[in-house]
Amino acid sequence: MTLQNEQQSTKPRVGIFVDVQNIYYTCRESYGKNFDYNAFWRTMEAQYNIECAFAYAIYRGDEKQNQFQNILRAIGFDVKLKPFIQRRDGSAKGDWDVGITIDMLEQGKNLDKVILLSGDGDFALLLGHLKKSI
């Protein structure tokens, strides 16, 4: 076993779950900035053994958005996409709450820690459940 492998085996196993749209709008509206996924990944990699990392986004067919999703893939995220739905009132829907919940429950069994990036308070019950079971 190499030193690097030994260090990885002593790090906690983590799963990362990112609600991309929610993080984008929260960072933009609250801080006027974009979230730095590269810096985040480097920080996580230094502290944890990343077992899985999912980025949940919507598909619009927009080239700039496709490029961003490819950047997330290059960083190490498994990007999951749902089609963009435009409501009659002009608002948009790309709800990933159930998908994120299912993935966290399934993956959480094999992890020491889960990290959820979302500003959605609906996940509080899920996180409480996972905290008890991990």
Features:
four-stranded parallel β-sheet, Rossmann fold, 134 residues, alpha/beta, 6 helices, two-stranded antiparallel ribbon, single chain
Written description of the protein model:
Helix content is 49%, strand content 25%. The chain is built from six helices and six strands. The strands form two sheets. It has a four-stranded parallel sheet with strand order 3-2-1-6, with helices on both faces. A two-stranded antiparallel ribbon has the order 4-5. A hairpin with a 5-residue loop joins β4 and β5. The longest helix has 13 residues. The model has no long low-confidence stretch (mean pLDDT 89).
CATH class: Alpha Beta
Sheet having the most strands? 4 strands, parallel
The assigned structural class equals alpha/beta
Mean pLDDT over all positions:
89
Shape category: globular
Determine the number of helices (DSSP H or I, runs of at least 4 residues). Answer: 6
Indicate the CATH architecture: 3-Layer(aba) Sandwich
Rg of Cα set = 16 Å
CATH topology: Rossmann fold
Provide the helix percentage: 40-55%
Strand runs, count: 6
Beta-strand content estimate: 15-25%
Corresponding CATH superfamily:
5'-nuclease
Q: N- to C-terminal separation?
A: 27 Å
Strand order of the largest sheet: 3-2-1-6
Low-pLDDT windows of residues: none
Q: What is the string of SSEs from the N terminus onward?
A: HEHHEHEEEHEH
The tally of structural domains comes to: 1
